[in-house]
Design a protein that fits this description.
Length: about 280
Protein backbone atom coordinates (compact mmCIF):
# COMPACT_ATOMS: atom_id res chain seq x y z
CA UNK A 1 0.00 0.00 0.00
CA UNK A 2 2.84 2.40 0.85
CA UNK A 3 4.45 1.69 -2.52
CA UNK A 4 1.19 2.51 -4.29
CA UNK A 5 0.81 5.75 -2.33
CA UNK A 6 4.35 6.79 -3.17
CA UNK A 7 3.71 6.09 -6.86
CA UNK A 8 0.51 8.14 -6.80
CA UNK A 9 2.34 11.03 -5.15
CA UNK A 10 5.13 10.88 -7.70
CA UNK A 11 2.66 10.95 -10.55
CA UNK A 12 0.87 14.14 -9.50
CA UNK A 13 3.28 16.41 -11.35
CA UNK A 14 5.44 15.12 -14.21
CA UNK A 15 9.20 15.67 -14.06
CA UNK A 16 10.66 18.73 -15.73
CA UNK A 17 11.54 18.17 -19.40
CA UNK A 18 15.07 16.78 -19.78
CA UNK A 19 17.80 18.57 -21.71
CA UNK A 20 18.42 15.48 -23.85
CA UNK A 21 16.14 12.85 -25.34
CA UNK A 22 15.45 9.91 -23.01
CA UNK A 23 14.14 6.40 -23.60
CA UNK A 24 12.55 4.35 -20.82
CA UNK A 25 12.00 0.62 -21.32
CA UNK A 26 9.09 -1.02 -19.48
CA UNK A 27 8.46 -4.73 -18.93
CA UNK A 28 4.92 -5.25 -20.20
CA UNK A 29 4.76 -9.04 -20.09
CA UNK A 30 5.70 -12.23 -21.87
CA UNK A 31 4.12 -14.81 -24.18
CA UNK A 32 4.89 -18.53 -24.00
CA UNK A 33 3.60 -21.42 -26.05
CA UNK A 34 3.61 -19.96 -29.55
CA UNK A 35 4.77 -22.54 -32.08
CA UNK A 36 7.58 -21.52 -34.44
CA UNK A 37 5.43 -23.01 -37.22
CA UNK A 38 3.27 -19.88 -36.98
CA UNK A 39 6.32 -18.04 -38.30
CA UNK A 40 7.20 -20.61 -40.98
CA UNK A 41 9.93 -22.25 -38.92
CA UNK A 42 10.15 -25.89 -37.91
CA UNK A 43 10.45 -26.84 -34.26
CA UNK A 44 14.07 -26.37 -33.20
CA UNK A 45 14.96 -23.87 -35.94
CA UNK A 46 14.80 -20.88 -33.57
CA UNK A 47 16.90 -20.59 -30.43
CA UNK A 48 14.20 -19.21 -28.14
CA UNK A 49 10.42 -19.28 -28.59
CA UNK A 50 9.30 -17.20 -25.60
CA UNK A 51 8.36 -13.66 -26.50
CA UNK A 52 8.82 -10.60 -24.33
CA UNK A 53 6.44 -7.65 -24.57
CA UNK A 54 8.09 -4.26 -23.97
CA UNK A 55 6.52 -0.82 -23.83
CA UNK A 56 8.55 2.35 -24.31
CA UNK A 57 8.32 5.91 -23.09
CA UNK A 58 10.22 8.52 -25.07
CA UNK A 59 10.78 11.78 -23.20
CA UNK A 60 11.81 14.74 -25.34
CA UNK A 61 12.40 18.34 -24.22
CA UNK A 62 9.21 19.23 -26.13
CA UNK A 63 6.96 16.40 -24.96
CA UNK A 64 6.46 12.68 -24.49
CA UNK A 65 5.63 9.68 -26.67
CA UNK A 66 4.29 6.31 -25.52
CA UNK A 67 5.22 3.53 -27.95
CA UNK A 68 3.19 0.30 -27.62
CA UNK A 69 1.04 -0.37 -24.56
CA UNK A 70 1.44 -4.02 -23.60
CA UNK A 71 -0.37 -7.32 -23.78
CA UNK A 72 -2.31 -7.34 -20.47
CA UNK A 73 -4.50 -4.36 -19.50
CA UNK A 74 -3.75 -2.82 -16.13
CA UNK A 75 -7.41 -3.39 -15.24
CA UNK A 76 -6.71 -7.15 -15.13
CA UNK A 77 -4.37 -6.78 -12.15
CA UNK A 78 -5.67 -7.29 -8.63
CA UNK A 79 -5.34 -4.38 -6.16
CA UNK A 80 -2.22 -5.97 -4.66
CA UNK A 81 -0.53 -5.88 -8.08
CA UNK A 82 0.15 -9.62 -8.17
CA UNK A 83 1.15 -11.10 -11.55
CA UNK A 84 -1.55 -11.84 -14.12
CA UNK A 85 -1.59 -14.95 -16.31
CA UNK A 86 -4.04 -15.38 -19.18
CA UNK A 87 -4.66 -17.87 -21.98
CA UNK A 88 -4.46 -21.61 -22.45
CA UNK A 89 -2.42 -22.36 -25.59
CA UNK A 90 -0.36 -19.19 -25.69
CA UNK A 91 0.25 -18.21 -22.07
CA UNK A 92 0.42 -14.48 -21.50
CA UNK A 93 1.90 -13.22 -18.25
CA UNK A 94 2.48 -9.71 -16.93
CA UNK A 95 4.11 -8.92 -13.60
CA UNK A 96 3.91 -5.11 -13.53
CA UNK A 97 1.07 -2.78 -14.52
CA UNK A 98 2.15 -0.23 -17.09
CA UNK A 99 0.78 2.76 -15.16
CA UNK A 100 2.63 1.64 -12.01
CA UNK A 101 5.90 1.61 -13.95
CA UNK A 102 5.10 5.04 -15.36
CA UNK A 103 4.23 6.42 -11.93
CA UNK A 104 7.54 5.22 -10.53
CA UNK A 105 9.29 7.76 -12.80
CA UNK A 106 6.69 10.46 -12.25
CA UNK A 107 4.33 10.10 -15.22
CA UNK A 108 0.66 9.27 -15.72
CA UNK A 109 -1.24 8.80 -18.99
CA UNK A 110 -2.52 12.37 -19.00
CA UNK A 111 1.11 13.56 -19.14
CA UNK A 112 1.71 11.81 -22.45
CA UNK A 113 1.74 14.11 -25.48
CA UNK A 114 1.65 11.43 -28.18
CA UNK A 115 0.62 7.80 -28.44
CA UNK A 116 1.91 5.58 -31.25
CA UNK A 117 1.80 1.82 -31.62
CA UNK A 118 3.76 -0.32 -34.01
CA UNK A 119 0.48 -2.00 -35.03
CA UNK A 120 -2.98 -3.08 -33.89
CA UNK A 121 -2.29 -6.66 -32.69
CA UNK A 122 -3.58 -7.16 -29.18
CA UNK A 123 -0.16 -7.76 -27.60
CA UNK A 124 0.65 -4.11 -28.39
CA UNK A 125 -2.67 -2.40 -27.58
CA UNK A 126 -3.72 -3.63 -24.13
CA UNK A 127 -3.61 -0.21 -22.44
CA UNK A 128 -4.17 1.99 -25.49
CA UNK A 129 -7.47 3.41 -24.20
CA UNK A 130 -5.64 4.93 -21.23
CA UNK A 131 -3.95 7.30 -23.68
CA UNK A 132 -7.06 8.52 -25.48
CA UNK A 133 -6.27 12.00 -24.15
CA UNK A 134 -2.99 12.03 -26.09
CA UNK A 135 -2.58 12.73 -29.79
CA UNK A 136 -2.60 9.41 -31.60
CA UNK A 137 -0.04 9.01 -34.40
CA UNK A 138 -1.25 6.32 -36.81
CA UNK A 139 -0.96 5.37 -40.46
CA UNK A 140 -4.20 5.87 -42.40
CA UNK A 141 -4.31 2.25 -43.57
CA UNK A 142 -3.94 1.02 -39.99
CA UNK A 143 -6.68 3.19 -38.57
CA UNK A 144 -9.04 2.30 -41.42
CA UNK A 145 -8.50 -1.39 -40.70
CA UNK A 146 -8.85 -1.02 -36.91
CA UNK A 147 -12.26 0.62 -37.19
CA UNK A 148 -13.41 -1.15 -40.34
CA UNK A 149 -15.40 -4.39 -40.68
CA UNK A 150 -14.31 -7.23 -38.35
CA UNK A 151 -11.57 -9.35 -39.92
CA UNK A 152 -11.72 -13.12 -39.57
CA UNK A 153 -8.63 -14.49 -37.89
CA UNK A 154 -7.18 -11.06 -37.14
CA UNK A 155 -5.24 -10.86 -33.85
CA UNK A 156 -7.19 -7.87 -32.66
CA UNK A 157 -9.09 -6.83 -29.54
CA UNK A 158 -11.04 -3.70 -30.39
CA UNK A 159 -12.09 -3.15 -26.76
CA UNK A 160 -8.50 -2.20 -25.90
CA UNK A 161 -8.41 0.74 -28.32
CA UNK A 162 -12.02 1.70 -29.09
CA UNK A 163 -11.68 5.04 -27.26
CA UNK A 164 -9.03 6.09 -29.77
CA UNK A 165 -11.72 6.43 -32.42
CA UNK A 166 -12.63 9.83 -30.97
CA UNK A 167 -9.14 10.80 -29.81
CA UNK A 168 -7.19 13.68 -31.30
CA UNK A 169 -5.41 11.95 -34.18
CA UNK A 170 -2.58 12.73 -36.57
CA UNK A 171 -3.10 10.58 -39.67
CA UNK A 172 0.21 9.57 -41.25
CA UNK A 173 0.52 9.01 -44.98
CA UNK A 174 3.44 6.59 -45.19
CA UNK A 175 6.10 9.29 -45.21
CA UNK A 176 8.61 9.61 -42.39
CA UNK A 177 7.06 11.57 -39.53
CA UNK A 178 9.35 13.71 -37.37
CA UNK A 179 7.45 13.72 -34.08
CA UNK A 180 9.16 16.70 -32.42
CA UNK A 181 10.59 18.39 -35.51
CA UNK A 182 14.29 17.96 -34.78
CA UNK A 183 15.09 14.61 -36.39
CA UNK A 184 15.51 12.78 -33.09
CA UNK A 185 12.21 10.84 -32.96
CA UNK A 186 10.98 9.61 -36.33
CA UNK A 187 8.15 7.22 -37.14
CA UNK A 188 8.80 5.23 -40.30
CA UNK A 189 6.13 3.35 -42.21
CA UNK A 190 6.86 -0.39 -42.58
CA UNK A 191 3.62 -2.02 -43.77
CA UNK A 192 3.04 -5.70 -44.35
CA UNK A 193 2.68 -7.32 -40.96
CA UNK A 194 -0.43 -5.16 -40.74
CA UNK A 195 -1.69 -2.59 -43.27
CA UNK A 196 -0.06 0.32 -41.45
CA UNK A 197 2.70 -1.26 -39.38
CA UNK A 198 5.35 1.28 -38.36
CA UNK A 199 8.74 1.40 -36.63
CA UNK A 200 10.44 4.04 -34.50
CA UNK A 201 13.85 5.64 -35.07
CA UNK A 202 15.58 7.48 -32.23
CA UNK A 203 18.74 9.56 -32.35
CA UNK A 204 20.02 9.41 -28.77
CA UNK A 205 22.93 11.65 -27.77
CA UNK A 206 24.91 9.03 -25.83
CA UNK A 207 23.45 5.72 -27.02
CA UNK A 208 23.47 6.68 -30.68
CA UNK A 209 20.95 5.84 -33.40
CA UNK A 210 18.40 3.16 -32.51
CA UNK A 211 15.54 1.54 -34.40
CA UNK A 212 12.72 -0.05 -32.39
CA UNK A 213 11.39 -2.51 -34.94
CA UNK A 214 7.91 -3.46 -33.70
CA UNK A 215 6.95 -6.73 -35.41
CA UNK A 216 8.99 -6.14 -38.54
CA UNK A 217 10.67 -9.27 -37.18
CA UNK A 218 9.75 -11.55 -34.28
CA UNK A 219 12.86 -13.74 -34.17
CA UNK A 220 16.43 -12.77 -35.13
CA UNK A 221 16.37 -15.83 -37.37
CA UNK A 222 13.87 -14.04 -39.62
CA UNK A 223 16.52 -11.47 -40.52
CA UNK A 224 18.85 -14.21 -41.72
CA UNK A 225 16.32 -16.44 -43.51
CA UNK A 226 13.77 -13.98 -44.87
CA UNK A 227 10.92 -16.07 -43.52
CA UNK A 228 7.70 -14.27 -42.65
CA UNK A 229 4.86 -15.26 -40.30
CA UNK A 230 1.97 -17.28 -41.66
CA UNK A 231 -0.44 -14.54 -40.57
CA UNK A 232 1.12 -11.53 -42.34
CA UNK A 233 -1.39 -9.12 -43.80
CA UNK A 234 0.78 -8.91 -46.92
CA UNK A 235 4.01 -10.93 -46.96
CA UNK A 236 5.31 -9.32 -50.16
CA UNK A 237 4.83 -5.90 -48.61
CA UNK A 238 6.62 -7.10 -45.46
CA UNK A 239 9.64 -8.16 -47.47
CA UNK A 240 9.76 -4.77 -49.17
CA UNK A 241 9.50 -2.99 -45.81
CA UNK A 242 12.25 -5.13 -44.35
CA UNK A 243 14.55 -4.34 -47.27
CA UNK A 244 13.90 -0.60 -46.90
CA UNK A 245 14.42 -0.61 -43.14
CA UNK A 246 17.58 -2.72 -43.38
CA UNK A 247 18.99 -0.22 -45.88
CA UNK A 248 18.07 2.62 -43.51
CA UNK A 249 19.71 0.85 -40.56
CA UNK A 250 22.87 0.34 -42.59
CA UNK A 251 22.88 3.96 -43.73
CA UNK A 252 22.37 5.39 -40.24
CA UNK A 253 24.47 2.72 -38.47
CA UNK A 254 21.58 2.25 -36.05
CA UNK A 255 21.24 -0.70 -33.74
CA UNK A 256 17.95 -2.55 -34.16
CA UNK A 257 15.82 -3.83 -31.30
CA UNK A 258 13.43 -6.65 -32.25
CA UNK A 259 10.72 -5.99 -29.68
CA UNK A 260 9.67 -9.58 -28.93
CA UNK A 261 13.18 -11.06 -28.87
CA UNK A 262 14.03 -12.15 -25.32
CA UNK A 263 17.78 -12.12 -25.99
CA UNK A 264 17.60 -8.49 -27.11
CA UNK A 265 15.41 -7.48 -24.18
CA UNK A 266 17.25 -9.24 -21.33
CA UNK A 267 20.35 -6.98 -21.11
CA UNK A 268 18.48 -3.71 -21.66
CA UNK A 269 18.31 -1.13 -18.90
CA UNK A 270 14.77 -1.17 -17.55
CA UNK A 271 12.93 1.80 -16.09
CA UNK A 272 13.60 3.70 -13.85
CA UNK A 273 16.98 3.61 -15.60
CA UNK A 274 16.94 5.13 -19.07
CA UNK A 275 18.86 5.59 -22.30
CA UNK A 276 19.91 9.01 -23.52
Amino acid sequence: MLFACVNIALAQNPPKPPKNLRLYVFDCGSIKGLSPTLFNFKEGEVKATQFVVPCYLIVHPKGTLMWDTGTVPDSAFKPDGSPVTQGTGAIITATKPLKTQMAAIGYKPSDITFLAMSHYHSDHTANANDFAGSTWLVQKAERDFMFGPPQQGAIINTSTFDKLKDAKTKILDGSDYDVFGDGKVIIKSAPGHTPGHQVLFLKLAKTGPLLIAGDLYHYPEERATGKTPTFEYNAEQSRASRAAIEAFVKQTKAQMWIEHDAATFAPLKKSPSFYE
